[in-house]
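Cross-check.
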Amino acid sequence: MMLGLEKMVVLPEEIIIKRLTKLVMKRIMFLFDRLTSKFKYNPVFWFKYLRFCIQSESKKNFYRVVSNALRFNSNNMDMWEVAIYYEMEMRHNPFKSRKMFMKCLRINSKSLDAWLRYLRFECRFIKVIEKRENILEEELEKAKGISEPKKEGDFDEGAKDGFLTFEDDDNAKHLDLLASSDEEEDEKEIELGMKKSNHELLLVIVESILDDFPADFSTFEGIIKTLREESGESVEIKLARKKIFRLIKEREVTDISPKETVKLVAVNRGIFPENPQI
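Predicted model, tokenized:
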């Protein structure tokens, strides 16, 4: 009796492994779905499920799981950050991440922790923009360094008939000296003006925090710590730190004591231990 074995097709080993892996993943996700449906408000199980989705590179399932997780744990900032930084760092879409943070703030508008985390996010967003700007500036400098095609009246050999070649000539040095220091200062002002928008954004966020929360020591400490930890080599964040700390020193919007002001100075410089005792 023929069993039809001669008609069986032997599949390659790679295809077999791929199909088995897919079946195993489906089974694991099925178990996770049952677990999270029973314990909807337990973030531990949701985090494990999200980590599995990230490790298995399952984009579609990640969005489905994180949406359900935030539906039942909308006040959990760690879970919001998993969704936000997944979009920013793994999907390379910081603008969508910002929209997600806006939704998070609408839900958690009374949470100081949410606002401080948003301030940290914008600092990182600014550093991404600054990095792109620096790369663009380097490319432009390289482009300017490429020799331009010679125009009519440019000569390689000495001076001819009243035309001067400024290569390796003393006149070129004199002409270079005509660029005054005032022009250099104007360039610096223009550069700072280009950075103004992002810098002002951080100040707007801080003003929003001060409008909604008490202008006390703990609020300013959270703001200063966040800016100090994220500043690095960022010009804009350092400018924001200076302006915000100047506001604290003036003490126009807060009733913090002189002792707490000294404490904030130490926090701003990063020389204070955790939970300092004064």
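Residues 155-190, 274-278 have pLDDT under 50 and may be disordered. The radius of gyration is 30 Å. Passed to J.P. for a second look.
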